[in-house]
Each structure stands twice: as structure tokens, then as C-alpha cells.
Amino acid sequence: MGRDGDRRRTQAYDVELGMAVSLAQQRDEDGFATAYRLVHPGLLGYLRGLVGDDAEDVASDAWLEIARDLGRFRGDGAGFRGWTATIARHRALDHLRKQKRRPRTSLIEQDVLALPGRADTVDAVLESMSTKWALGQIRELPPDQAEAVLLRVVVGLDGPAAARVLGKRPGAVRTAAYRGLKRLAEQLTSGSGPEQAADAARGTVKDET
User: Fold this and answer.
1) What is the H or E stretch that residue 73 is in?
2) What DSSP character marks residue 150?
3) Which of 137, 99, 135 is nearest to 208 (CA)?
């Protein structure tokens, strides 16, 4: 029932986003402002997981490119989220290369495991995390798992869309995301539970999913 509700909210969100993007492509400033408002928080969270404190600067570069190339975009609201995430990822990797640091990405295993969906406990864990605390924990995951979790949970992409952003197979990205979420849940339930997480992150906004 909860997942049905989440699905309906996501669909409504993408309908609103699709309409805003359509208006923005007609040079409607309010349409662009709405698209920015809907997409930017997730995009910024994703970039924080990739480049840390430089996320704001990288996001600014990404939005300049998004605004410049908006007329070339073809698709709906969900497609726009994937398109903007791809642009943001490219800008993040460029930024890391300029800093002569290795990107926080790596080749993920190609085998596709038959893993179950996210457990209810994992959903509860994610909902209890604050944005700041959660991103810090996600960045400690293996790079492939971290980026898969960021795209699935923070940006809100489905498996195929996240796979397109990463240039990987959907099954492999799904596996990485599941393992990352499971690892986060285990960390929280072994010595650093939701209560400690909440105390450590008091004053920060809660994670928006």
C-alpha cells in the first residue's frame, strides 16, 4: 500500500514536471522555475554524493548546460530527471578530472543476481535518515553501490533510467543499489541506529524521497 502511494506521488510529480518542461521549452520562465524547483534538490543530493562540498558549483554548471540544451530534450517528466542526472554526472566527472582525482565510479560486476526487492526495514531506515547524515553514509559505500543508491533514492530514477545514466545494465545497477541499501540498513542496526542518527543530525532537514 505504501509503495502504491509512492508510485502515485511519483507519477503526479512527473506529470507536473513534464508540463513545466514543456512550458520551459517555450521560453516560459515560470515553467523553467518550476522544473528547477522539482529537480534541483535531488540533483544536488546526487552531486554531493559524487563531489562533496563542490556540489553547488557543479550543479550551477550543470544547470547552465541544461538551460542551453533544453530545446533538444525530448521526453516526459521521468525522462527529464534522467537527462538532467546524466548532464550532472558528466559535469561531476569533469570536475573530478580537473582536480586530478579519480571519479567515485567503478566498473560494477556484470552478473545479475536474483535478489528480492527492498525490505520494509530498509525503507524505514532511509526515511529516518537526515539528508546530511545519509549522504555521509552513502559516500562510505563502494563507489558502484553509492552511485546506484543516489540515483535510485535521491534522484528518484527507476532501474532502467539509472542504468542509462551510468551506461550499465539495469540488472547490475539494481544489484548494486540493493546491496548498498542493505549495507546501510546493517550499519544502522549494528551500533548506530536511527536514534543515534537523528541525534547526530539534529537541525538538518529530513531526507525527501
Assistant:
1) none
2) I
3) 135
